[in-house]
Specification:
- There is one protein chain.
- With 455 residues, the protein is an alpha+beta fold.
- It has 2 domains: 197 residues, no CATH class; 148 residues, Heat Shock Protein 90.
- Helix content is 67%, strand content 10%.
- The protein is built from 14 helices and 7 strands.
- Helix 1 packs antiparallel against helix 3 and helix 7 packs antiparallel against helix 11.
- The two termini are 65 Å apart.
Length: 455
């Protein structure tokens, strides 16, 4: 059966996928490294219980491995090494250390050490996220060290004692853990790809939502212009038709009066009268057609200012973007003045400003953050604040977005372009006598403020 809903993994940005995989791998790597370092006291207790006479030697090996682990992790973090390089060095040092211990301890005491090493390999391959080849490589190194040391220390015995005293369990489980590492790598990789596709789909949905609102705004404006043109046309036509009908009626009265005295008219006069009657009928026909004509739309957009309460408009804008915010797991908090705030603005364009500004803020802020919307009056001004305490978008980046629209003649082109929302909102705000300011840094987060004069 054909799967029409198959996710197009081939369209994923490979650089972004690699970056996301590295972030995940670095996180799991950090967990594994610190777990290995903090497990040192547990292994010392194990040595005291099972090899009391050699615990100092074993402890020295463990301390060496601990020091190597700490230094490699710290140096790699400072110098920004690849997480796979840090992980290979750290796990390599610990695997070699555990393999050396398993290879040198007496066979009767080897079982607990093989079991601990088995658990270590299993936990590592179920915790870390790296390419499966590295798990296979470390297992091969461990097998080689154990087999070589066993052969050197137990030349007369066969390998059966190695297998029966924990070696068989270790070889089997560690080999199986390599399969787990492979499956884990594939699952996490596929999950990351899905997340990237979902994120890209969400971004496109936000853009489509913004474009739909743009079209809705254009439709509202066109409907308003059409209504005004219709009213103007109707009034003009009514006047013209009224005057024309009066003129046609007067002509018709004169024609009827002459027709009543047609017996006194000559042939030429009757012919002229028929021409006049025909012309009057044509005028009557034209008057009917005139009522069906329409004026052409000039396409000029003008602001229609009216006095209204701005609080419901801010609330509607926040509610309209709840779905868009939920896509990015952004929580919208609205704090509005309980009193009315009357402004003298164009309501349609104000809605457009609020939607463009809010939708673009949601698009660029950090996923899972909180967006607060405040509206109040202060010193004769209506103040609308949009606050986000997440990761700053960046002042330079916002400057670029807000300055993309420099010419007023670019408005109709810009409203359909991605990334122009901030600039469009600023231009419309300025055109209606308002002020739009913004800040973005680690202190205030992302801050946007609209100011309009009260009516």
């Amino acid at each position: 059966m054909i799967d029409y809903h198959k996710i197009p993994y081939v369209n994923i940005d490979r650089d972004k996928l690699t970056s996301e995989l590295n972030k995940r791998g670095a996180y799991y790597s950090n967990v594994a490294v610190w777990s290995l370092m903090f497990s040192l006291p547990l292994f010392v207790v194990l040595d005291l219980l099972f090899l009391n006479d050699q615990w100092t030697f074993l402890m020295s090996l463990r301390v060496i491995a601990f020091v190597i682990t700490y230094l490699v992790n710290r140096m790699g973090t400072q110098k920004r090494w690849s997480y796979e390089l840090i992980l290979n060095l750290v796990i390599g040092a610990n695997v070699i250390m555990m393999s050396l211990i398993c290879g040198v301890v007496p066979i009767p005491n080897a079982l607990p050490y093989f079991l601990i090493t088995t658990i270590l390999m299993l936990l590592l391959n179920t915790t870390v996220f790296w390419r499966p080849i590295y798990a296979q490589m470390h297992c091969a190194i461990s097998y080689t060290i154990i087999v070589v040391l066993y052969a050197l220390n137990n030349r007369t015995d066969g390998y059966s004692s190695l297998i029966t005293n924990g070696g068989g369990v270790y070889f089997l489980v560690s080999a199986f853990s390599c399969v787990i590492a492979y499956n884990r790598y594939q699952i996490i990789k596929r999950e990351t790809e899905k997340n990237l596709i979902i994120e890209e789909s969400n971004r496109r949905m936000l853009e489509q939502n913004e474009k739909i609102n743009d079209q809705h705004h254009l439709i509202e404006e066109a409907n308003r212009r059409l209504k005004e043109l219709s009213d103007y046309r109707q009034n003009t036509l009514n006047i013209m038709i009224h005057d024309l009908k009066n003129f046609i009626g007067s002509n018709q009265i004169s024609i009827d009066l002459i027709n009543r005295k047609s017996s006194n008219l000559t042939t030429d006069q009757k012919e002229i009268l028929s021409y006049i009657t025909m012309g009057n009928e044509k005028l009557h026909y034209l008057s009917q057609k005139l009522s069906e004509s329409a004026e052409a739309d000039t396409g000029k957009i003008e602001y229609r200012f009216e006095q209204f309460d701005i609080i419901p408009e801010v609330e509607k804008a926040g509610i309209a973007l709840v779905d868009a915010a939920s896509i990015k797991q952004v929580t919208i908090q609205v704090h509005l003045s309980p009193a009315e705030i009357i402004v003298n603005l164009d309501k349609i364009f104000l809605r457009h400003i609020l939607f463009k500004l809010l939708s673009n803020v949601i698009r660029f802020i950090q996923k899972g953050s909180v967006l607060s919307i405040h509206a109040a009056d202060y010193e004769g001004m209506c103040i609308i604040e949009i606050i986000n305490k997440g990761t700053p978008i960046g002042k330079e980046r916002l400057d670029e977005y807000f300055n993309r629209l420099n010419s007023p003649n670019q408005s109709e082109f810009a409203v359909t372009q991605s990334g122009m929302g901030f600039s469009v909102a600023q231009k419309l705000t300025v055109d209606m006598g308002g002020v739009l300011t913004y800040e973005s840094d680690s202190t205030v987060g992302n801050y946007f403020k609209l100011k309009f004069k009260l009516a």
